[in-house]
Design goal:
Layout (H helix, E strand, L loop, with lengths): L2 H17 L17 E5 H5 L20 H4 L4 E2 L9 E2 L28 E5 L3 E9 L4 E12 L2 E13 L11 E15 L5 E16 L3 E2 L20 E2 L4 E19 L2 E18 L6 E2 L2 E2 L9 H5 L5 E20 L2 E17 L3 E19 L6 E9 L4 E8 L3 E10 L3 H4 E2 L6 E2 L5 E10 L1 E3 L2 E13 L2 E3 L5 E3 L4 E14 L2 E12 L10 E13 L3 E12 L6 E3 L4 E3 L9 E12 L2 E8 L22 E10 L2
Antiparallel strand pairs: 1-4, 2-3, 5-6, 5-37, 6-7, 7-8, 8-9, 9-12, 10-11, 12-13, 13-16, 14-15, 16-17, 17-18, 18-19, 19-20, 20-21, 21-24, 22-23, 24-26, 25-26, 26-29, 27-28, 29-30, 30-31, 31-32, 32-35, 33-34, 35-36, 36-37
């Protein structure tokens, strides 16, 4: 017997043992499973589209465990999961209320407004585990159980760690990222169905080490060359002793009551408490050629140098209480919603000089209307919200089986920390205009034999665009900026064979302000087959390619990506090999990421000083239980 057959036989035997943990009746038929476990989303209840979903058990794409990979790698990170993240292409901010401004790590937190509210016939437990040879660990544990037929409680715990790729790690497991996320939720519906309440507690504790990028071994060199990336561990980091922490606690409660047929009142309460830290214990020590990491010119005389603190530290404490009251119902075929939103927030900090933003009041009012066409396959909706400072959102969209098209006009205020920031490295206090944008988008789907085409187009015109310049300081554009992006997904399926390609073409009128690759392309080739009548296997390869461009650098002090003209990133294909396997409801994946390292180069950069993931092996498993 060949080694391949022995491996698959052992693997099949392992899966077979796992599968006996399911609930069986006396006739050995499974009673409970994915079909008896379902959940609903708050947005569907809010919009009177009560839809139940079942947990995902598909094999296709199971190896894409990271949200960035699931998107098609449409976010720029710093080379590893858990690091700071921004969208690869411009995305308009649709939140018209005043926001704090630290967004780079929220990507890894639970979103309380998108919680899954379960209804389970039996206790449901879902365990997901992924680990890499490079020191990454991702764990997601979910348990949901009905206390009573109409009352459910769910807990979801997520654990994420990643190890350093460079920076002279002493062990393979030396941490770069240490993250915990907890989501506890409950939902209840009265016996007559008139009253519904959804509640969520969301905790996030994300603690990354800030390395500032990779540093050449020779101090006379400014950057590490791509040809030298064969062994990342040989290099030091630009920051030797800096770290951040994003700590959040949030309560979110939604409740509604039906007063009469087609008419309801609802209330949403949000309470948030955030603490954001940054500390650089080598603020003065990390100096090269008379400049520190933050671009400050360091004095040469001892007296002036002694006046500079050895440590740079900041700590923001932010609190928010928000109440949203509304009415909703159906009138002459239109589903409608009206609301009033009141926000109360404050910000305190201590940089050596006390800084306090006293409690600020903000009031917003909005309306939403949705119409289903007689065939029930097409619908159109429009919404509008306006705030006390004339911040507003106007949005309309048509959704059909063949065509989706929409328009939005947004006037959004600058983030609090865009307008005022204080630290020993640099500070500013300024008033910024609202960022204004018109956004158009359309997509369609065309089936032609074995081919499926999904073209889409996006166009944005922005005024008063807020960005961080070459000096990592906030700035605002005085000229309008246009952005156009066209995308095309092509799928070819023949029996169990799939060939899929996704390409994005992007252009902007201000390349010196908005940086993005002109072409981003993803290709997937996979084949699915069954081994020994039980083991389903989906295996293949993925190729990611981005044309070379001046990708933004990252400033950990402000947690902002900023412009750079020093060195281009990507211009390099990344090839991943994968195999997804499934027996009954147990799924396992094997993945070999960046398998082509060394061809055509020793590595690649996602920014001028941040290298991408080196060749790494991943293993992951998902095991749902229903007892």
């Amino acid at each position: 017997m060949s080694i391949k057959k022995i491996f698959f036989t052992l693997l099949l035997s392992y899966f077979y043992g796992l599968c006996h943990a399911q609930i069986l009746d006396d006739s050995t038929k499974q009673v409970y499973g994915l079909k008896t476990t379902r959940y609903i989303l708050e947005n569907d209840i809010l919009n009177n589209r009560k839809t139940y979903y079942n947990p995902d058990s598909t094999l296709d794409g199971f190896h894409l465990f990271d949200r960035n990979l699931k998107s098609g790698w449409l976010y720029q990170d710093l080379g590893l999961i858990g690091t700071a993240v921004k969208p690869l292409f411009f995305q308009p901010n649709e939140e018209v209320s005043k926001q704090l401004g630290f967004t780079t790590y929220g990507f890894y937190a639970f979103d309380a407004t998108k919680s899954k509210y379960y209804n389970t016939k039996s206790p449901y437990t879902n365990m997901y585990y992924s680990q890499s040879g490079g020191g990454m660990l991702y764990l997601d544990f979910t348990h949901s159980q009905n206390i009573k037929p109409r009352w459910n409680i769910t807990f979801d715990v997520r654990r994420l760690t990643a190890a350093k790729q460079y920076g002279a790690p002493q062990t393979r497991e030396e941490r770069l990222v240490d993250s915990w996320a907890l989501l506890g939720s409950t939902n209840y519906e009265s016996k007559d169905g008139k009253y519904t309440v959804l509640g969520t507690y969301n905790h996030f504790n994300h603690a990354p080490v800030d390395q500032g990028g990779i540093k050449p071994l020779d101090d006379s060199l400014k950057f590490v060359e791509t040809s030298d990336l064969s062994n990342y561990k040989n290099f030091l980091s630009r920051l030797s002793n800096a770290s951040s922490r994003d700590w959040r606690n949030e309560f979110h409660i939604y409740q509604q009551y039906q007063l009469s047929n087609g008419f309801q009142v609802y209330h949403i309460l949000d309470y948030q408490r955030r603490i954001d830290y940054y500390q650089d214990n080598s603020f003065k020590a990390d100096t090269a050629n008379g400049l520190n990491f933050y671009g400050q010119i360091m004095p040469t005389d001892t007296a002036s140098l002694n006046q500079i603190p050895d440590t740079l530290s900041i700590a923001y404490r932010y609190r928010l209480i928000e109440n949203k009251f509304g009415i909703k119902g159906i009138y002459r075929g239109f589903a409608y919603r009206l609301h009033l939103r009141h926000r109360l927030y404050n910000l305190t900090s201590n940089f050596g000089n006390d800084f306090r933003l006293k409690f600020q009041n903000e009031v917003l009012a909005g309306a939403w209307a949705n119409y289903y066409f007689p065939d029930s396959l097409k619908r159109a909706y429009a919404e509008f919200e306006i705030g006390t400072n004339l911040n507003y959102k106007l949005k309309a969209e048509y959704i059909g089986p063949r065509l989706n098209a929409g328009f939005s006009q947004l006037s959004t205020p600058a983030y609090i920390l865009d307008e005022r920031f204080m630290s020993a490295a640099y500070s500013w206090n300024q008033s910024l205009k609202n960022q204004f944008s018109n956004n158009f988008y359309a997509s369609t789907a065309i089936q032609f034999g074995r081919f499926r085409f999904l073209p889409s187009a996006y166009y944005t015109l922005i005024d008063n665009y807020i960005y961080y310049d070459l000096n990592a300081r906030v700035n605002q554009s005085s000229v309008p900026i246009s952005i156009f992006r066209a995308s095309l997904n092509i799928e070819y399926r023949w029996k169990k064979f799939l060939l899929a390609n996704q390409i994005h073409l992007a252009q902007t009128s201000q390349r010196n302000i908005i940086r993005m690759p002109a072409i981003a392309n993803n290709t997937t080739v996979s084949y699915e087959f069954v081994y020994a009548k039980r083991l389903h296997i989906n295996a293949g390869a993925e190729i990611y390619y981005r044309t070379a461009y001046y990708a933004d650098n990252y400033m950990p002090l402000t947690r902002q990506f900023y412009l750079q003209n020093d060195k281009k990133a990507w211009g390099y294909p990344v090839v991943d090999l994968f195999a997804n396997m499934k027996v009954s409801k147990v799924r396992v994946f094997l993945k070999f990421a960046h398998v082509n390292q060394g061809f055509p180069a020793s590595g690649y950069f996602v920014s001028s000083v941040y290298p991408g993931l080196r060749r790494t092996f991943f293993l992951g498993a998902n095991w749902p239980l229903f007892d």
